[in-house]
Amino acid sequence: MPLIALTGGIASGKSTIARRLAEHGAVVVDADAIVRDVQRPGSPVLEAISAEFGSGVIAADGELDRAALAAIVFADPEARTRLNEIVHPAVRAESQRRFDEALGRGDGTVVVYDVPLLVEARVDDPWDSVVVAHAPASVRRERLQRLRGMTAEEADRRISAQVDDDQRLAIADVVIDTAGDLQATLAQVDALWAELTAAPAS
């Protein structure tokens, strides 16, 4: 019952890899989805965020105004650290609950934790394998501009807010090169799945 950490920089193709693994039968636990869950209206996390960053980060409907919060934390590393100190413990607890639930399904289950901030927050956890989606920063910058409508400056700010590629690659057990076309990426994921599910040699 392997527990796999899947990480990569913004616009690295990590979500494409996660979807393909899910198609093969992996249980994918999405860290970003957990973040949204623990920040729902009325949650202790959202109340702490509002207390720390002000009511301006709360939208009229009571939801977190992610754009307003991003404008603060991507411009100020200290603010980003304070946000992480609020959010990360709640995410860790909820992700562990979901791991336990998935692994309780029995032998043969492959659980994949899709987590952008692995190096920053979870690198020392007992993963069976760490998979890194990798594309050069120049490729990811172009994707952010083309697919998400960011300016070059916005893209650079998002990329530089994360750890650099060398730090991610240093913890990788498997690197999936996502700089090529989609089929090349999927072929690497399929090969990874075959390795993860291969019967052990007798």
UniProtKB/TrEMBL annotation:
Q: Where in the cell is it found?
A: Cytoplasm
What keywords were assigned to this record? ATP-binding, Coenzyme A biosynthesis, Cytoplasm, Kinase, Nucleotide-binding, Transferase
Annotated ATP binding lies at: A11, S12, G13, K14, S15, T16
KW Transferase (keyword) present: yes
InterPro entries, A to Z: Depp_CoAkinase, P-loop_NTPase
Main localization category: cytoplasm
Which reactions fall under this protein's catalytic activity? 3'-dephospho-CoA + ATP = ADP + CoA + H(+)
Q: In which pathway does it act?
A: Cofactor biosynthesis; coenzyme A biosynthesis; CoA from (R)-pantothenate: step 5/5
* EC numbers for this chain: 2.7.1.24
PROSITE patterns to which the protein is assigned, alphabetical? DPCK
GO MF, one term, reads: dephospho-CoA kinase activity
Q: Which domain of life is it from?
A: Bacteria
Is this entry keyworded Transferase? Answer: yes
Per the entry, what this protein does is:
Catalyzes the phosphorylation of the 3'-hydroxyl group of dephosphocoenzyme A to form coenzyme A.
Give the record's family classification.
Answer: Belongs to the CoaE family.
Full protein name: Dephospho-CoA kinase
Q: Which organism is it from?
A: Microbacterium plantarum
